[in-house]
Design a protein that fits this description.
This protein has 393 residues and is an alpha/beta fold. The protein has two domains: 16-263, Type I PLP-dependent aspartate aminotransferase-like (Major domain) (Aspartate Aminotransferase, domain 2, 3-Layer(aba) Sandwich), CATH 3.40.640; 266-392, Aspartate Aminotransferase, domain 1, CATH 3.90.1150. It contains 14 helices and 16 strands. It has helices at 16-28, 36-49, 60-71, 91-95, 114-118, 140-150, 202-205, 208-212, 253-263, 266-283, 314-325, 340-344, 353-361, 373-392, and strands at 54-57, 78-82, 99-103, 125-131, 153-157, 165-166, 169-170, 177-181, 195-199, 216-217, 233-234, 238-239, 242-243, 290-292, 305-309, 362-365. The strands form five sheets. Strands 1-9-8-5-4-2-3 form a seven-stranded mixed sheet, with helices on both faces. It has a three-stranded antiparallel sheet with strand order 14-15-16. It has a two-stranded antiparallel sheet with strand order 6-7. A hairpin with a 2-residue loop joins strand 6 (165-166) and strand 7. The radius of gyration is 22 Å and the shape is globular. It starts with 15 loop residues before the first helix and ends with a helix. The model has no long low-confidence stretch (mean pLDDT 97). One of its GO terms (molecular function) is glutamine-scyllo-inositol transaminase activity.
């Protein structure tokens, strides 16, 4: 098969300036982890979001693990999670003892709403995980109002929505915690892996450096000799009688140096992807059987370009696009309750008809930032041609 437009695992190519920053950090970084580049990346990321406490980590799952740990679940506590999302949005919370309760999505926006969340809340709900899937920010003002009225924590999974906002307030700046991913497929990527954790509570934020780095901390007394009693201390606090166990979630200095530089163009990347997405969607306006979510504002960064086939021809469309046109579309985000993993744990039940309907008919088009105009135009023409063929039967 001659693939003309692939669904790539790489979202973008680096500029010469970004490559130069990596080379410079490789030459000059005094340490290759936990150094000045990490500190600067955290500071600039916090400024970008308009928050106070950001912590760079080795990937998005590390940030999810930390946020789940800081939720401090008790036996019987529940966490509300969209059924339609990537598995990493869920299993860190199960590892900390929470029971997942699956929330449905809105069929148009493909994300959870305050109403879909409220339907599954119980007196045992400790936290809500809001995933801004595909790059679109959920209705966070309404969700936060609901959560605050019930005393429930909110974790924003902003792995896909960097730079997207609601009325100027950035995704990731609403919840008690937020996580970012800088994976190879994201709009901002730090050499394939990387992540960021946002913590709103200043007291909890003080715990993160130790949790992230093996429990390392300073001694709480003055030492006449820096090596006595040891080069560094290891300690973690008890909260409500619970020990907070540390881990090693550190990210390298080279990745942080690149992240600093990439922040300078993330808004431009998002704008360019959004312009292309809207152009693609508008060009297919005469094909209502392919239903997109059109958003021509910064509330959507179009990390991915997803559609729903409304006439049950999804599989025929993907097969023909691949076999006849060489365009590799994919299907993403199997409802988590359908996976054997969650079913074996007893979490296979979900009342999420919209998630089921969307997944069973969804198509994700190749939409990496580096697609050429020729590839983009070819994919658009191929889409029209295949849809015309399906109409003819």
């Amino acid at each position: 098969m001659d693939i003309k437009v692939n669904f790539s695992g790489r979202a973008l190519y680096y500029t010469e300036d970004e490559i130069a920053v990596v080379a410079e950090a490789m030459r000059t970084a005094e340490t290759l982890t936990q150094g000045r580049y990490m500190q600067e990346f955290q500071r600039k990321f916090a400024e970008y979001l308009g928050v106070k406490h950001c912590f760079a980590v080795m990937n998005g799952v590390s940030a999810l693990e930390l946020s789940a740990q800081l939720c401090r679940f008790k036996p019987g506590d529940e966490v509300v999670i969209p059924s339609h999302t990537f598995t990493a949005s869920a299993y860190p919370f199960l590892k900390k003892g929470a029971k997942p309760v699956w929330a449905d999505i809105d069929l148009k926006t493909r994300v959870v709403t305050a109403d879909s969340i409220e339907k599954v809340l119980t007196p045992r709900t400790r936290a809500i995980v809001v995933v801004h899937l595909y790059g679109y920010v959920a209705d966070m003002p309404a969700i936060m109002e609901l959560a605050r009225s019930r005393g429930i924590l909110v974790v924003e999974d902003t792995a896909q929505s960097i730079g997207a906002d609601v009325d100027g307030k950035m995704s990731g700046s609403f919840g008690d915690f937020a996580i970012y991913s800088f994976h190879s497929h994201k709009n901002l990527t730090t050499l394939g892996e990387g992540g960021m954790l946002v913590v709103q509570d200043p007291e909890l934020a003080k715990l993160v450096p130790g949790l992230r780095h093996n429990g390392h901390c300073g001694f709480d007394f003055e030492r006449p000799d820096y090596w006595v009693p040891a080069m560094g201390n290891v300690d973690m606090p008890m909260i409500d009688g619970e020990m907070l166990w540390p881990n090693n979630y550190c990210i390298g200095e080279i990745e942080c140096a690149l992240g600093i530089k990439q922040l300078e163009r993330i808004d431009r990347i998002n704008a360019e992807k959004r312009e292309r997405a809207v152009r693609f969607i508008d060009a297919l306006a005469d094909y209502p059987e392919l239903e997109f979510h059109r958003v021509d504002t910064t509330r959507h960064n179009y990390h991915l370009l997803a559609a729903r086939m409304t006439n049950a021809n999804r599989d025929a469309f993907i097969r023909t696009m691949f076999n006849d046109k060489g365009v590799k579309c994919v299907v993403q985000y199997y409802p988590l309750n359908r996976y054997p993993f969650y079913q074996r744990l007893g979490y296979g039940a979900a009342d999420c008809p919209n998630a089921d309907t969307f997944f069973d008919n969804m198509i994700s088009f190749p939409f990496q930032h580096w697609l050429t105009e020729a590839e983009f135009d070819y994919m658009l023409a191929a889409t029209k041609d295949v849809l015309d063929g399906l109409r003819r039967g």
